[in-house]
Amino acid sequence: MNTPKVSFGVLSALMVAMLLAALDQTIVATAMPQIVTEMGEMTYYSWIFSIYMIAELVAMPIFGKLSDLFGRKRMFLTGLIVFIVGSALCGYAQSLAGLVLFRGIQGIGAGAIMPVAFAIVFDIFPVDKRARMQAFLATVFGIASVFGPIIGAVLTEYLHWRWIFYMNLPLGLLSVLLLIRFYTEKRGQHSPSLDWQGLLLLFGALAALLLVFEWAGSSFGWHSPATAGILLAFLVLFASFIWVERRATEPFIPLHLFGGRRFSVSQVVGLLQGAVMMVTIMYIPLYMQLVSGNGVSGSGYMLMPMMLGLVVCSVVGGRVVEKISYRQALLIAGAHIVLGTVLLGSVQAHSSNWLTICSLILVGGGLGLSFPVLFTTSLHGAEQEHRGTINALVPFFRSIGGVIGVSVFGSIQMQRFAHRAAEEGKVSPSQLQAVHEWLQRGGGTDPSVQNLASYLADSIIWVFQASAVTAVLSLLAGLWIGRERLVLPPSEAAAYAPKSGSRRHAGKA
């Protein structure tokens, strides 16, 4: 049994690493104007964001499986060191192309940190504490994702944009030292056998899928031959992956996991909620700039109510899942998200900011409640050798939902904006630039620019309404989760029986 000192040391190491990995998803957003100005080019502008997310998502299931085969500590340290090296290279980058390459290295390391961190928590904490500890990690991730742009702006303004990467070095090394000092892993007698065919096919399929949603509607368009070709490549690679995994002695991703209703429903719920979360984070700051004239930083602060709800309810969710059935927990979480997104979809230009704030608290609260619940439902009854893979798949599906949601809802938003803007005639690039400058100034009096800004705000409301539909689908999916509750395995039930005679360990609601 781990002592409190050891548990605290390990948890601190995991939280620091999670903080850095989550921050770097969004920290470059406010630094990009300075980076582009210094580098003198914009060719790979969007890839600074995209490559990190793509590399991270592709790496998640891979490192989750590798941690099952070769050990949590080894894979976590490998990923963390890759992340630190990538950060150092990003800080040193002399061109935008080099920065994109090094951001990809960073993303690979980040893709190892998240799933293995959750798996370590599952391994070192007893059942009655796991949900709460995983909730803490999920909370760190959520907070960092939102405050990344704010921290990036501060570092860029008062130091230099390179420090958004250099700050990872001392903190990353601190996490390495803490984990080496406090975490001693107990390894079984399992003989590792890596399914290389499955790994390579999965890598290719995921990369193709993410490229479809990254490029469709922007670089190539949904109906372009390039998009169709990439989508076809994904289908071929994914079908080949399924064929190989069904015949593998030790498959890279055990497909039998998806045969269980509880596990499959959990991933569907996570994917849909991921879309709602990322779309809200992406569009709330822009909407607030359009309707209230807030500056960039002021609009970013409007996400704080959402994070407040997420933080508080993540901790609460860790306890809720111990006391009620999984279905009841997801019903409560889903109801909060639905109500919050419906209210967001009803916001108008003249609406009080309090309506937006209350909406965001509800959305954040529902997401926070669901974080520990989805990890617990996915890991319910899982074998030791599959825990790393499962801990990778839960955030993986949530992140995939975010990527798909931003792409699909972004297309909805642009189509609505184009339809409304057609009333003004053809919108020229100079007019769009004028809208951008109007936002930077916090408003203006030019009627044509004001009209375009109002059309843009209207198109964003459509996105919020579409996310409300997605939230309803998530709520309905959660009803299929089943009535099971958190159950102590026989090996741990005896040890905790003297102090846990409550109903929370009953098998059924």
Automatic annotation (TrEMBL):
Naming one, the record's GO cellular component terms include: plasma membrane
The family database entries (InterPro entries) matched by this protein are listed as: EmrB-like, MFS, MFS_dom, MFS_trans_sf
Query: CDD domains attached here?
Result: MFS_Azr1_MDR_like
Q: Kindly list the places in or outside the cell where this protein is found, as annotated in its UniProt entry.
A: Cell membrane
Q: Which residues form the signal peptide?
A: 1-21
Question: Which Pfam families has this protein been placed in?
Answer: MFS_1
Q: Does the keyword Acetylation apply?
A: no
Keywords noted in UniProt: Cell membrane, Membrane, Signal, Transmembrane, Transmembrane helix, Transport
Which GO MF terms does the UniProt record name?
Answer: transmembrane transporter activity
User: Topology versus the membrane, per the UniProt entry?
Assistant: Multi-pass membrane protein
Where does the record place the Major facilitator superfamily (MFS) profile domain?
10-486
Record-linked PROSITE patterns: MFS
Mind telling me which residue stretches traverse the membrane in this protein?
Answer: 43-63, 75-94, 100-122, 134-155, 161-184, 196-216, 222-244, 265-286, 298-317, 329-348, 354-375, 396-414, 460-481
Reading the lineage from the top rank, the first entry is Bacteria
Show the PANTHER family listed in the entry.
Answer: MAJOR FACILITATOR SUPERFAMILY, MULTIDRUG RESISTANCE PROTEIN 3
What is the protein name for this chain?
Answer: MFS transporter
Species for this entry: Xylanibacillus composti
